[in-house]
Write a structure and sequence with these properties.
The chain has three domains: 104 residues, 2-Layer Sandwich (Alpha-Beta Plaits), CATH 3.30.70.260; 76 residues, Alpha-Beta Plaits, CATH 3.30.70.260; 216 residues, 3-Layer(aba) Sandwich (Rossmann fold), CATH 3.40.50.1000. The chain has 16 helices and 15 strands. It is elongated. The protein binds magnesium ion. Magnesium ion binds next to loops. InterPro entries: ACT-like_dom_sf, ACT_dom, HAD-like_SerB, HAD-like_sf, HAD_sf, PSP, PSP_ACT.
């Protein structure tokens, strides 16, 4: 059995703080004291012009409407990262009794950018606060910028999407084109962070102000032209919900077409391969082609089943994908137009929750050239996705389907997220999302799981 799991990530994990926190919106304001809304302040008013007393600050400044115009300070710190910066900044600010409205921090290659949005200090104190923060920053060799303003962050536009870009490598011109296309659809990029640098560079853009579907359509065209993979999903709580992942087997979970492995033992691989290729292109009815190919195996000794099981090569990243999904509480299944003689073995070896395929009929130690039971074809795969989802108690919109062939299309479209994996063009174009790098674990990034999280999980649990 060839080892198919990619090598362990060679680099050290990204420093703590490299991933900025998810925006959670403004906290619910505490009821402000009964008080008339402050007269609308002049647009250019400085902090000194707005004598908002302590106590009224927090509840009012976090609220909507008139409260949004209360004076605030944006404090930005930039420089070489080292322990104690965050504590140092807020310790300095604490002397001025300001309240924290927002904090964002990112560390890239050892450089920290820390932004704190705080309420303005009591009247007359801003100058002193500025001097003290600059003095502290200089003492720890950092740069500080303090900008007076009003209110909280501008509210994000309606329509929230997450755009994952996979590049191998990710080129500057591709990034520029994707960003321009997002802007072109009316979207605003609110946040960007790296999900992974191995085995591909994966970056996630949080976008607001545009609907998911037109954004997906616009970016799919751009991605194909650029040679990168782009997935667009609606942002929201459902993305974090427990889900079910259902995969095709041949040329998805494994690198092989199982019937071709059998055909090699039966000495009819060329005839079988020709039929398989045509079927995958959608040129042949799947059931007819299945019967035609299986018929060519008639008389093959049952010992070939064990041989084929040992010949199957998992797709790179398959073990990582399944192991990580299982640890995250996902249920994982396979559906195959191939054969239970192989999928049952994969189910046991990989710890899958569900597996369904066609069954080769075996009589007196020989393949009869027939299959038994209900045929798993294009419609059958979608039916099985629904059945697995029902058994797993997972709504269909929280399922993910992965496949490469024409007979996977119904399943891909029925799932909440359908991923065409190194698929034929007609499949790629019809699916929600396409992955065109040969690493199955890149699907994790489409689910918002970072490489760092994958590796952290591996460090705490035994490898399989
Ligand atoms: Mg396939």
């Amino acid at each position: 059995m060839s080892a198919s799991t990619p090598p362990t990530h060679p680099d050290a994990p990204t420093p703590e703080g490299a991933r900025a926190p998810e925006p959670e919106g403004t906290p619910t304001p505490t009821p402000a004291p009964a008080r008339e809304a402050a007269p609308t302040a002049a647009p250019e008013a400085t902090a000194e012009d707005a004598p908002v007393g302590q106590g009224a600050h927090l509840g009012q400044s976090l609220g909507e409407g008139a409260h949004a115009s209360l004076p605030t300070l944006l404090v930005k710190i930039f420089g070489k990262d080292r322990p104690g910066i965050t504590a140092g900044l807020f310790d300095t600010l604490a002397a001025y009794s300001v309240d924290v409205i927002d904090i964002e921090q990112v560390v890239t290659r050892g450089r920290i950018v820390l932004c704190a949005l705080v309420t303005a200090p009591p009247a007359g104190m801003e100058g002193d606060l500025r001097a003290t923060v600059h003095s502290w920053a200089e003492s720890v060799k950092l740069q500080a910028e303090i900008i007076s303003g009003r209110g909280d962050n501008r509210p994000r536009g309606l329509g929230r999407s997450l755009v994952t870009v996979l590049g191998h490598p990710l080129k500057a011109e591709s990034t520029a084109a994707i960003a321009a296309r997002i802007t072109g659809t009316g979207g605003n990029i609110d946040r960007i962070f790296r999900l992974a640098k191995y085995p591909v560079t994966a970056v996630e853009f949080a976008v607001s102000g545009t609907e998911t579907e037109p954004l997906r359509t616009a970016l799919a065209t751009e991605a194909h032209a650029l040679g990168v993979d782009v997935a667009v999903v609606a942002a929201g709580l459902h993305r974090r919900a427990q889900r079910l992942v259902v995969m095709d087997v041949d040329s998805t979970l494994i690198q092989d077409e199982v019937i071709e492995l059998f055909a090699a033992h039966a000495g009819c691989e060329e005839e079988v391969a020709a039929v398989t290729t045509a079927a995958m292109r959608g040129e042949l009815d799947f059931e007819e082609s299945l019967h035609a190919r299986v018929a060519l195996l008639k008389g093959l000794d049952v010992s070939s089943v064990d041989k084929v099981r040992t010949e199957v090569r998992l797709t790179p990243g398959a073990r990582t994908l399944i192991r990580t999904l299982k640890r995250l509480g996902y249920q994982v299944g396979v559906v195959s137009g191939g054969f239970t003689q192989v999928t049952d073995d994969l189910k046991e070896r990989l710890g899958l929750d569900f597996a369904h395929a066609n069954t080769l009929e075996i009589v007196d130690g020989k393949l009869t050239g027939r299959v038994t039971g209900e045929i798993v074809d294009r419609a059958g795969k979608a039916r099985l996705l629904r059945r697995f989802a029902a058994e797993a108690g997972v709504p269909l919109e929280q399922t993910v389907a992965i496949g490469d062939g024409a007979n996977d299309l119904d399943m891909l479209n029925a799932a909440g997220l359908g991923v065409a994996f190194n698929a034929k063009p007609m499949v790629r174009e019809a699916a929600h999302t396409a992955v065109n790098v040969p690493f199955l674990d890149t699907v994790l990034y489409l689910l918002g799981i970072t490489r760092e999280e994958v590796e952290a999980a591996d460090m705490h649990l035994d490898h399989d």
